[in-house]
């Protein structure tokens, strides 16, 4: 298991970048925009289908950058997940959203390649869930993360084989969307993991 580390900057980044009242883009199963809903409402109950994205960043050694979600997050706080994930804002192009969020959460940016999109629903508890049409991107970087502590508790680099072993031994410590995405990347896009 990779050793969890905090960002390397001398001053912590604690800027709030997520808001319960920010409007998320509601979509149908074909990813056609059908309206907007505040984030807190979109995640209530079984969730309302909305547009989202997930980013995977790999280093020159072929290791994936994982993040541990901040303990205070409403859904899956404290769970390990892929490098970065969030939602485009109302009127924001996906291309802009992915780079904005990578900077907001981890303090660096890199070229990103779109891989696929998929719909999933995952229930966290009786009052909250994710129901997303999620776009998945991959990028390569050697940058040191400057972690936003309002979003992330820790980060670590991990080799694919070690990640597979950890997921098999402790699947309950990883977010549901990450497990789905990782399985598909290994199956259909494994060449993108090669440095």
Brief summary:
By secondary structure, the chain is an alpha+beta fold.
Can you describe what's shown?
There is one protein chain. The protein is of the alpha+beta class and 195 residues long. It has one domain (23-193): Nucleoside Triphosphate Pyrophosphohydrolase, CATH 3.90.79. It has four helices and nine strands, in the order ββαββββαβββαα. The strands form three sheets. It has a four-stranded mixed beta sheet with strand order 6-3-8-7, with helices on both faces. A three-stranded antiparallel beta sheet has the order 5-4-9. The two termini are 20 Å apart. Residues 1-11 have low confidence and may be disordered.
On the 0 to 100 scale, the average pLDDT is: 91
> How helical, in percent, are the residues?
10-25%
| CATH superfamily heading | Nucleoside Triphosphate Pyrophosphohydrolase
Taking strands numbered 1, 2, ... along the chain, how are they ordered across the largest sheet?
6-3-8-7
Number of helices: 4
- Class in CATH? Alpha Beta
What is the straight-line distance between the termini?
20 Å
- Judging from the principal axes of the Cα atoms, what is the shape? globular
Low-confidence stretches: 1-11
Any idea how many domains? 1
How many strands, what sense, and barrel or not for the largest sheet?
Answer: 4 strands, mixed
Number of strands: 9
Order of helices and strands: EEHEEEEHEEEHH
Stated plainly, the CATH topology is called: Nucleoside Triphosphate Pyrophosphohydrolase
Q: What is the percentage of strand-forming residues? A: 25-35%
| Multimeric status of the protein | single chain
